[in-house]
């Protein structure tokens, strides 16, 4: 078994799972750890798969059966209760070192570790699938974020607009938003940024897109937004930070990685699109 939580192990194995097994993984991760204590039948129903698929998934994790899987989950929870986590456990800094030098040293360690861990834990399959969906010119891309993460949704959206057509930020005004959502269909990709505290409207948006046969790409934290249960692709990031606020630095690194992949995937077409956009901007006095 991998070190860390059972959720970490599931995320690391996502790229090796069958599509049906990946549905089971998403259901478990979306309501972790509580979902792991449901019955096999309940998990199968929520994932829209068969009970044997759930058992195969558990076997993929290295367990001899479902009771053994649940026993491991109970042991993990017991360990958590006995050893409360601290935001600064991994920094090994001297308490009270609030000098500029101390803060910079702590931030350097935290951000370096968080970015490296984030990029190491994203399954290559999910990154490749995200790039494939976002580079498909037959698909319409719509992006939406939350209280802080709307900034990252706009950042990724602006890059996409320079590389390809039919990219939209979900409007804020109710009438415009409702009109945009009524157009969702099977050729749409909804990109959602949702981090704790998770926002209920993001769950509703992801479910709507899935119901309309569209694809959902979710950027979230390692605890996984509930929108993950409706996603084709989930790209989780660490959020460790020297302040009480969750960090978006690792997520930005993931966004930049996706953009690099998109440029490679679109090739000459992306270059031509950028050239044409730049030409129009110059002719209209925008640059």
TrEMBL record:
<dbReference type="InterPro" id="IPR001347">
    <property type="entry name" value="SIS_dom"/>
</dbReference>
<dbReference type="Pfam" id="PF01380">
    <property type="entry name" value="SIS"/>
</dbReference>
<dbReference type="GO" id="GO:1901135">
    <property type="term" value="P:carbohydrate derivative metabolic process"/>
</dbReference>
<dbReference type="InterPro" id="IPR035472">
    <property type="entry name" value="RpiR-like_SIS"/>
</dbReference>
<protein>
    <submittedName>
        <fullName>MurR/RpiR family transcriptional regulator</fullName>
    </submittedName>
</protein>
<dbReference type="InterPro" id="IPR046348">
    <property type="entry name" value="SIS_dom_sf"/>
</dbReference>
<keyword id="KW-0238">DNA-binding</keyword>
<dbReference type="GO" id="GO:0003677">
    <property type="term" value="F:DNA binding"/>
</dbReference>
<dbReference type="Pfam" id="PF01418">
    <property type="entry name" value="HTH_6"/>
</dbReference>
<dbReference type="GO" id="GO:0097367">
    <property type="term" value="F:carbohydrate derivative binding"/>
</dbReference>
<dbReference type="InterPro" id="IPR047640">
    <property type="entry name" value="RpiR-like"/>
</dbReference>
<dbReference type="GO" id="GO:0003700">
    <property type="term" value="F:DNA-binding transcription factor activity"/>
</dbReference>
<feature type="domain" description="HTH rpiR-type">
    <location>
        <begin position="4"/>
        <end position="80"/>
    </location>
</feature>
<keyword id="KW-0804">Transcription</keyword>
<keyword id="KW-0805">Transcription regulation</keyword>
<dbReference type="InterPro" id="IPR000281">
    <property type="entry name" value="HTH_RpiR"/>
</dbReference>
<dbReference type="InterPro" id="IPR009057">
    <property type="entry name" value="Homeodomain-like_sf"/>
</dbReference>
<dbReference type="InterPro" id="IPR036388">
    <property type="entry name" value="WH-like_DNA-bd_sf"/>
</dbReference>
């Amino acid at each position: 078994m991998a070190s860390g939580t059972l959720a970490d192990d599931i995320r690391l194995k996502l790229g090796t799972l069958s599509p049906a097994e990946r549905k089971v993984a998403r259901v478990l991760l979306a309501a972790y750890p509580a979902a792991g204590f449901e019955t096999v039948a309940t998990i199968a129903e929520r994932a829209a798969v068969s009970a044997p698929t759930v058992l195969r998934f558990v076997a993929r994790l290295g367990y001899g059966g479902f009771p053994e899987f649940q026993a491991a989950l109970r042991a993990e929870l017991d360990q958590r209760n006995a050893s409360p986590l601290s935001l600064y456990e991994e920094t090994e800094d001297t308490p009270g070192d609030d000098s500029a030098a101390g803060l910079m040293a702590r931030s350097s360690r935290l951000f370096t570790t968080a970015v490296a861990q984030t990029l190491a834990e994203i399954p290559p399959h999910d990154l490749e699938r995200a790039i494939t969906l976002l580079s498909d010119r037959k698909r319409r891309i719509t992006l939406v974020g939350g209280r802080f993460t709307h900034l990252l949704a706009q950042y990724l959206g602006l890059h996409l607009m320079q590389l390809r057509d039919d990219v939209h930020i979900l409007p804020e005004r109710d009438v415009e938003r409702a009109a945009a959502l009524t157009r969702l269909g099977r050729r749409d990709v909804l990109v959602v940024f949702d981090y704790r505290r998770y926002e209920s409207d993001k769950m509703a948006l992801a479910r709507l897109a899935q119901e309309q046969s569209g694809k959902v790409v979710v950027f979230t934290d390692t605890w996984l937004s509930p929108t993950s249960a409706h996603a084709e692709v989930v790209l989780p990031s660490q959020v460790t930070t020297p302040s009480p606020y969750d960090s978006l630095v690792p997520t930005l690194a993931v966004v930049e990685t996706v953009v690099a992949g998109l440029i490679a995937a679109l090739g000459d077409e992306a270059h031509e699109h950028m050239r044409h956009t730049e030409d129009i901007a110059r002719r209209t006095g925008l640059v």
